[in-house]
Amino acid sequence: MIVPLPSPNCPRCGTPFASEFAMIESPSHICGVCRKTPPSFDTAVSGGEYAGPLRDLLHTFKFRMRPDLAHYIAALTLKRVPLPCADAIIAVPLHPGRLRAR
C-alpha cells in the first residue's frame, strides 16, 4: 500500500513537520529550511511517502528500464496530487555521469 506523507506538512516544500501541532497557531507556517533558504518554487506536493511499494515502483521504472510503468505512475500521480493548482510537472533530469554509468 502506498502511504501518504504524514500531516501536517510545510505548505512550501511539503516536508512533514515533527509535531502534529506545528500549524495550529499559524496555518501558513513554513519550515525552518524554507524560511532560511526559500526555494525557487511556490509549492511542492508528493503522491506518497518514498518507501515500500512506491519506492519499489519508482526504482523498477528507473533502474530496470521499464517505460511501460510510466502510464501507471502518471495515473497514480493524477489520483493523489491536486493538479489544477500546478503550472507544470517536471521530471528531474539525471546527471550525465549517472546516465553514463547506467
Could you characterize what this model shows?
With 102 residues, the chain is mainly alpha-helical. It is 33% helix and 0% strand. The protein is built from four helices and no strands. The longest helix is centred in the middle third of the chain and has 12 residues. The chain is globular and about 45 Å long. The model has no long low-confidence stretch (mean pLDDT 81).
Summarize the structure.
The chain is an all-alpha fold.
Low-confidence spans? none
Task: Return Rg in Å.
Answer: 16 Å
Along the chain, the helix and strand elements come as HHHH
Q: Distance between the terminal alpha carbons, to the nearest Å?
A: 29 Å
- Major sheet details: none
Query: Quick one: overall form?
Result: globular
Please state the structural category: mainly alpha
Mean pLDDT: 81
Helix content: 25-40%
Number of helices: 4
What share of the residues does DSSP label as strand, in percent?
A: under 5%
The multimeric state of the shown protein is: single chain
Topology, number of strands: 0
Key features of this structure:
102 residues; single chain; mainly alpha; 4 helices; 33% helix
Question: Helix and strand layout, with pairings?
Answer:
Layout lengths: L31 H5 L15 H12 L6 H11 L15 H6 L1
